[in-house]
Amino acid sequence: MYELRGLNEECGLFGIWGHPEASELTYMALHSLQHRGQEGAGIVATGGDYLFGARGMGLLTEALSQSQLESLRPFSKSIGHVRYATSDSSALSNVQPFLFKSHIGDLGLAHNGNIVNALQIRRALEDDGAIFQTTSDSEVFAHLLRRAKGPSRKARIKTTLQQLKGAFAFVILHEDAMTVALDDHGVRPLMLGMLDGAYCVASETCAFTAIGAEYIRDLEPGELITISDDGIDFDRYTAFENPSMCSMEYIYFARADSEFRGTSTYTIRKALGEELAKEMDIKADIVIGVPDSSLAAAKGFSDESGIPGEQGLLKNRYVGRTFIASGQEARERAVRMKLSPVRDIVEGKSIIVIDDSIVRGTTSKFIVKALKEAGAREVHMGVSSPPLKNPCYYGIDVSTHAEIIASSKSNEEVREEIGADSLTYLSVERMHQVYERFGSRGQCDACFTGNYPIENTDGLLPQEKDAKTKGV
Ligand code: SF4
């Protein structure tokens, strides 16, 4: 339901070094990361000489043709990217990995996140004569790297990374090495794995599962890894670190089977549901989850409360993106096409509906209405995250303040707007307790609390920055 909520992940990354089926494996891995971005996809690969790339718009299966994949098949080193784009930046030129050519070597670049001082850097570089090919904030990395001074490429990459602020997981391909870097707050996830002796990296471990790779560990904030034919080199680009991984990765974005520090997202979501049950003192006949991302939390809620869990809402998996248009009316139509109640399960019952988040309120409002039309006696809404009140500057399109329902309305006003008999959110404290229980070293919770861990130097949302970049 990514498009319906105004809550969209920006990207998914994968890279593998030294495997005879590198580009095919990259394609398979990207397929498993499709939930992180559906607007464009690409692969850049090399056999050790030049870099070659293919990219296109849409879902992976639409973006890359069979002949493009065939042309990349001979290469043993490969990186790939799937992206979500804000409406202003959906041009093919913004689809990654970017491929830069220069006489000192080619560079393939895949980025997940948002660089919050990219506009400032870009303006300075443009004033110095640089001409950008895209409106993407990721391109500043290539320009800075080309200008960086230092005794080695690794030293120049460190210098470049030290100039960037914000959220960035980078997978960078050169002819002779693959470099992987995570920002010093570790906002976006990045995992290290291995397949048949070849190191690989991915935004989520579900990509490793898809190709049969072993998950080794999560990258640490500030970490810089270089993988080449000589082996793997672990380093850091900065001594500073302030772990602030995105809480929304656990709550909503990551696939339920993906693991963080060895625990599946499913288990974490289930625990969030258990904690919500401790805070929501409501008696009801059944608990139902909004499919798919809230089913784990609903299970946890049911286990903790003793209220039987049922599948009272079904999701139509075949609603094409064609039907997902902007505008409130279109969104309501889209929700109606996507979710339907199971009448004989809900009829005459008092129901607790568990959803993982409320952004605009469109989905919740429809769910309450549809369940009541199907005969539900009472509909109580339980949200397995705190009220979402603020936009995100670190690579998630959470929409603007004006579109976020809880940003200007009290809980009671939101309850009234969505038509529920009661509305209970998980508290920020309990959410963090769950994360700490599963080994988190620190989480960003800015969209709930407004406590942004990284100053937004450009002072703009990604979509606003996009317009400024284009001089609009
Ligand atoms: S503001 Fe919210 S969505 Fe953005 S990184 Fe922080 S927790 Fe994630």
UniProtKB/TrEMBL annotation:
Reaction(s) catalysed by this chain, per the record, are: 5-phospho-beta-D-ribosylamine + L-glutamate + diphosphate = 5-phospho-alpha-D-ribose 1-diphosphate + L-glutamine + H2O
Q: Which residues form the active site?
A: C11 (nucleophile)
Query: Where does the Glutamine amidotransferase type-2 domain start and stop, copy by copy?
Result: 11-230
Gene3D superfamilies linked to this entry: 3.40.50.2020, Glutamine Phosphoribosylpyrophosphate, subunit 1, domain 1 (3.60.20.10)
UniProt-annotated binding residues for [4Fe-4S] cluster: C246, C392, C444, C447
Annotated GO biological process: 'de novo' IMP biosynthetic process; purine nucleobase biosynthetic process
| Involved pathway(s) | Purine metabolism; IMP biosynthesis via de novo pathway; N(1)-(5-phospho-D-ribosyl)glycinamide from 5-phospho-alpha-D-ribose 1-diphosphate: step 1/2
The cofactor(s) it depends on are:
Mg(2+); [4Fe-4S] cluster
Summarize where Mg(2+) binds, as residue positions.
S293, D355, D356
Enumerate the InterPro entries for this protein: GATase_2_dom (IPR017932), Ntn_hydrolases_N (IPR029055), PRTase-like (IPR029057), PRTase_dom (IPR000836), PurF (IPR005854), PurF_N (IPR035584)
* Entry keywords, A to Z: 4Fe-4S, Glutamine amidotransferase, Glycosyltransferase, Iron, Iron-sulfur, Magnesium, Metal-binding, Purine biosynthesis, Transferase
* E.C. designation(s): 2.4.2.14
Task: Write down how the cofactor binds this protein.
Answer: Binds 1 Mg(2+) ion per subunit. Binds 1 [4Fe-4S] cluster per subunit.
GO MF, one term, reads: amidophosphoribosyltransferase activity
What does this protein do, in the record's words?
Catalyzes the formation of phosphoribosylamine from phosphoribosylpyrophosphate (PRPP) and glutamine.
Q: Which family does it belong to?
A: In the C-terminal section; belongs to the purine/pyrimidine phosphoribosyltransferase family.
Q: What protein does this entry describe?
A: Amidophosphoribosyltransferase
Name of encoding gene:
purF
